[in-house]
Amino acid sequence: MKNVLRISLGVVIIVLAYLIYDSIMTPLRFERDKNYRYGVIIEKLKDIREIEKMYKNANKKYCGSFDTLFAFARTAKIPVVRMIPDPTDTTFTRSITDTIGYALVYDSLFGKRENFRIEDLAVNPFNPEVKIKLEAGFIDKGGLKVPVFMASALNVDILKGLDEQLIRNLDASLVALNKFPGLKVGSMTEVSIDGNWE
């Protein structure tokens, strides 16, 4: 009888130890996975921002369609500029810019990346059914129409498959602080091209 009691007590101790260990490790694993996934999405949002900046320079507005944005990146050319010191300037503070050629937007941004597919920028690899959201338009600032854009992904899509309660807790804490529940670059209400992670 004592042996049965000892074995039962040993099993209870092992189960309790595992439950305590798991309760400690679950938030740590969530944080590790969240940081990895955030890093992947942030790189995509940074690339989208770079194309949007070039699109705006060429068109005086931002683009709200991935198809149009990617077509622009594949076909639009930007000047390759060389800066040289002004030979007439003895203070060496002025320079002259000289256009020495043109390069495709795609080549200048992504030409050195192996196996890069521009279409993948719109895809959230953690929930491929839901694309990164892209919006563009104008807002009124002091009587002027100012172009704006926003590319975003929600935590529920970025963190899909992770602990649902921890995702809800994260979103609730962000909403309580009046922050976006996910990752975004740009804004549809402010003149900004910053990311909310910056």
Ordered list of secondary-structure elements with their pairings:
Layout: H1 2-59, H2 66-75, E1 77-85, E2 95-104, H3 105-110, E3 133-141, E4 144-154, H4 155-158, H5 164-176, E5 182-186
Antiparallel strand pairs: 1-2, 3-4, 4-5
Describe this entry's structure for a reader.
The chain has 198 residues and is α+β, with helices and mostly antiparallel strands. It has one domain (32-186). Helices cover 46% and strands 22% of the residues. The protein is built from five helices and five strands. The strands form two sheets. It has a three-stranded antiparallel β-sheet with strand order 3-4-5. The radius of gyration is 25 Å and the shape is elongated. The mean pLDDT is 88.
Mean pLDDT: 88
Q: SSE order in H/E notation?
A: HHEEHEEHHE
Q: Termini, distance in Å?
A: 64 Å
**Would you count the extended β strands for me?**
5
Largest beta-sheet characterization:
3 strands, antiparallel
Q: How does the helix and strand content classify structurally? A: alpha+beta
Number of domains: 1
**What topology, given as strand order, has the largest sheet?**
3-4-5
Tally of DSSP helical segments:
5
Low-confidence stretches: none
Quaternary class: single chain
Radius of gyration: 25 Å
Index terms:
198 residues; alpha+beta; 46% helix; elongated
Structure, briefly:
The protein has helices at 2-59, 66-75, 105-110, 155-158, 164-176, and strands at 77-85, 95-104, 133-141, 144-154, 182-186. The chain has 198 residues and is an alpha+beta fold. It is elongated, with a radius of gyration of 25 Å.
